[in-house]
Amino acid sequence: MCLPQEGQVLECSLINSIRVGAVPKDPKILSSFEAVGKTEADLEGCIICICSGTDLVNLSFMFMVAESPDTARKWIEGLRSVIHNFKANNVCPMTCLRKHWMRMCFLTNVNGKIPVRGITRTFASGKTEKGIFQALKDLGLPSGKNDEIEPSDFTFDIFYALTQKICPRTDIEELFKKINGNKTDYLTVDQLVSFLNENQRDPRLNEILFPFYDPKRAMQIIEKYERDEELKKKGRMSSDGFCRYLMSDENAPVFLDRLELYQDMDQPLAHYFISSSHNTYLTGRQFGGKSSVEMYRQVLLSGCRCVELDCWDGKGEDQEPIITHGKAMCTDILFKDVIQAIKETAFVTSDSPVILSFENHCSKLQQYKMAKYCEEIFGDLLLRQPLENYPMDPGHPLPSPNDLKRKILIKNKRLKPEVEQRQLEALKKHMEAGETNTPAIIMGEENEDDTENGEKEAEDKDLNSEVPSSLSEATSDKVTSSVCQSNTISSGKEAECNNSIKKVPDDEVTEISEATDATDISEASDQDNSKKGGDVAEDSEEALIAQYKYESATTNIHPYLSAMVNYAQPVKFQGFDVAEERNIHHNMSSFNESVGLGYLKTNAIEFVNYNKRQMSRIYPKGGRVDSSNYMPQIFWNAGCQMVSLNFQTP
């Protein structure tokens, strides 16, 4: 995609999203449009916003103006059809070189020629201009700093030769010499067959579906990639032909035909790996970082199917629930803005279900707002009730991804059915009486017995501590809180929430919290966002982290929100034997990486069997304040479905 100004070329595979842009408010921009006869009203629906970037944090936004809304719609549909292409993001080195060459051919100056300085910029990393000028000269091209090259003279073969001079593949050259014993400047058919079978072919492959290479197949490779006709006739391959073959799609490390969806998607949900994000809202560090609604868009567009929302009471007059890394000097974003962003991007790149992992610290009043936002914004996308063929009874398997296609599931603690039903009936009577302003305060304080399995979640208390020597030490001495509500029913006034904190007995805390680390470090959340998200002095940060005490998610759940929880219901983990005895497939538990690794060492078989039946979630330990990631493969090997990673870290 080539843009009108010199030097502006955007590769379509780097485009993350295409949106209808808002009409600009800048008077200078509006006046420039008025100069060409476009009023503010004429711009409605004509502006296209193109978001691009090499990662999910460092993004560029470019705006284009179409002649009409219809033209803008066609551009948006057309661009969406070519972006989010998995094959385009997994191309071979030779295709990458071809894309670089095409980009340079587009970057012509006003004379329609390729400036030499543009070529030097392309190869600038670690290379002196003098070496680049000499390579151009050796190829018979203009080599002066201010010279220009005719596009017709700058063919791909010339560009490839240039790259080999400036950035030679010495690794492939060494391999080439190793194969032929450094005795000749070519490979024979037998040498190539031996290399392909002994070094390149995966021995785990089925011999019928993926047969061994033979001389006939080796000759086909030589015919395709060898440029020297004399060598080709003799059945030999030069180092150049060998390099071209290794850099081709034919030598891709993955099966290119399997980059798109090809598996059976009718098995229970617990039989699939679910791409999961940890503290999705953060753009950087876990402490003192910035929260962004855009992160939810980018993460979902990248294919993630489980995002995390840390929900807290808003402090403003409007009492809007917010999402932030609770009291960790992070900025706030509005819950409703995140829900809107999720709706817009959840099913753009995939129809597989999306799970919203709530870390709920809100009062009942704001939980009710959260539930209403989910209901109103998501509409039919939200899975409100269990599917008819998949009742939430012991022994019944989870529905499949195909059964849950284009559905959003909420993962949040749930009340016991009888408690939930009783409170919903009280809520209905209250609403019918016309008292719509205070629906949350009609329920009294719940205790942990009111939530299913009495789930409590805790978190690493000390971010600087070493991993304890036993699981009991790792999970002991945690703090949890519950938000209390007034028992007043008839007053019609909003009652204040009295916070109570109680210590969870050591023998009851066996699950690490959904919340990420460093959450209750200071009262910094009461400050303005302008004072948050800035650079925190290292000594100050260490002191605050040392004081850290985690404030657990509330167990005082609003029944309206509770009723929205179905196939992703978090419960307190009480042991693999207890989970097996209960045999409740929609129950799931979370473990931080240290605790999860401990279970893999002591109960590996039980953990695997657990994951065959129900879902588990792994998330980073408390010490990863820098948003670093652990090695997920060890947990995937055990069948852990939701291995949550910090997507903001490449």
TrEMBL record:
Annotated EC: 3.1.4.11
Coiled-coil region(s): none
Classification via InterPro entries: EF-hand-dom_pair, PI-PLC_fam, PLC-beta_PH, PLC-like_Pdiesterase_TIM-brl, PLCB1-4-like_EFh, PLipase_C_PInositol-sp_X_dom, PLipase_C_Pinositol-sp_Y
Protein's UniProt keywords contain Chloroplast: no
Region (Disordered): 430-537
Composition bias, Polar residues: 466-501
Keyword Lipid metabolism: yes
Domain of life: Eukaryota
SUPFAM superfamilies: EF-hand, PH domain-like, PLC-like phosphodiesterases
SMART domains linked: PLCXc, PLCYc
UniProt protein name: Phosphoinositide phospholipase C
Native species: Ameca splendens
Lineage: Eukaryota, Metazoa, Chordata, Craniata, Vertebrata
